[in-house]
Amino acid sequence: MAAKAVVFVAVVLLDVAARRGSSQSYNAIYNFGDSITDTGNLCTGGCPSWLTTGQPPYGNTYFGRPTGRCTNGRMMMYYLFAADRFGLPLLPPSKASGSDFKKGANMAIIGATTMNFDFFQSLGLGNSIWNNGPLDTQIQWFQQLLPSICGSDCKNYLSNSLFIVGEFGGNDYNAPLFGGKSMDEVKGYVPQIIAKITSGVETLIGLGAVDIVVPGVMPIGCFPLYLTLYQSSNQDDYDGNGCLKSYNSLSVYHNGLLKQGLAGVQAKYPAVRLMYGDFYNQVTQMVQSPGSFGLKYGLKVCCGAGGQGSYNYNNKARCGMSGASACGDPENYLVWDGIHLTEAAYRSIADGWLRGPYCSPAILH
């Protein structure tokens, strides 16, 4: 047994690209992102009254009350790093005063963008950006926490932590698309957005990050919000899953450039382990075959407008607003409120990232 252990350690030391074995552990997780992973940064001290995601029935499955999470319960990170896997607690939002961030912190905040405010202002979209928490700012928040996390030995501490950077991009595209920009115009922004993401990843590497998951964007053409706002009478605009082709093509373009960008970063920093989190293909598969993931409904919203339309979605009666209500069986749904997923969906996604095949390479290996 001892000889096998020695061999195992030797292999791990020699193989930098696959540094962690099946018994791998992390001392902390640090997350950056938007509403897909925010665990309450916009609601420390209480959710603003205007925030629909801060109203019931958000949080009703697990917490019993709204917590600032844009779903019915726990987020994906809980399932990635629950006690039975890495012994890590629920990630506290970085804005929560008095929290201990040594085992992790969540910088993600609802509405976050990749690009800074001046980018959107230059496009005439300044009024569409209501939250000052872009990627650069979240990295600054993280840097402000470092003295309390790791003191003067941050490189060593962070090298044994896991970082998730994203997804970023969804809100960068929502703003111009909802603001009336053409698809061609929006696709023109993608290279700048990818460059910003990879730059952020390099900044974290410079601080000491070694294991980093960078997710792509989801198939936005499959979300009931988009399907309702941009519905078409032309069946050729839809794919076999009932999703809007042109909007999904934007996601595919973003994800393709992101993977190229990450390959460049990986080549520059061979001792770093970059992992691509594939939201797109997993969510697409969940829409196509919800039963394969323990679900019943792919494109139907759980918390929505009382059975209206094909998707139970009405933009004027969104979840948390008057006229909307939640289903009684959210564990059967992929989509919670039209643009965010359910706790059950996040659990499946976490499994797909931990063991594969939806994270390349898989977090566990």
Can you give me a brief rundown of this structure?
The chain has 365 residues and is of the alpha/beta class.
Write the layout of secondary structure elements.
Layout lengths: L1 H13 L13 E5 L43 H5 L23 E3 L10 H6 L12 H16 L3 H6 L1 E5 L4 H9 L4 H5 L2 H18 L3 E5 L8 H6 L15 H24 L4 E5 L1 H10 L8 E5 L1 E2 L20 E2 L6 E3 L7 H12 L4 E2 L5
Parallel strand pairs: 1-2, 1-3, 3-4, 4-5, 6-9
Antiparallel strand pairs: 5-10, 7-8
Helix pairs in contact: 8-10
Mean pLDDT: 90
How are the strands of the biggest sheet laid out side by side? 2-1-3-4-5-10
Total strands: 10
CATH architecture: 3-Layer(aba) Sandwich
- Helix-strand category: alpha/beta
Report strand %: 5-15%
- Total domain units: 1
**How would you characterize the largest beta sheet?**
6 strands, mixed
Terminal Cα span: 21 Å
Q: What CATH first level would be assigned?
A: Alpha Beta
Signal peptide: 1-18
Protein name: Esterase
InterPro entries: GDSL, SGNH_hydro_sf, SGNH_plant_lipase-like
GO molecular function, one term: hydrolase activity, acting on ester bonds
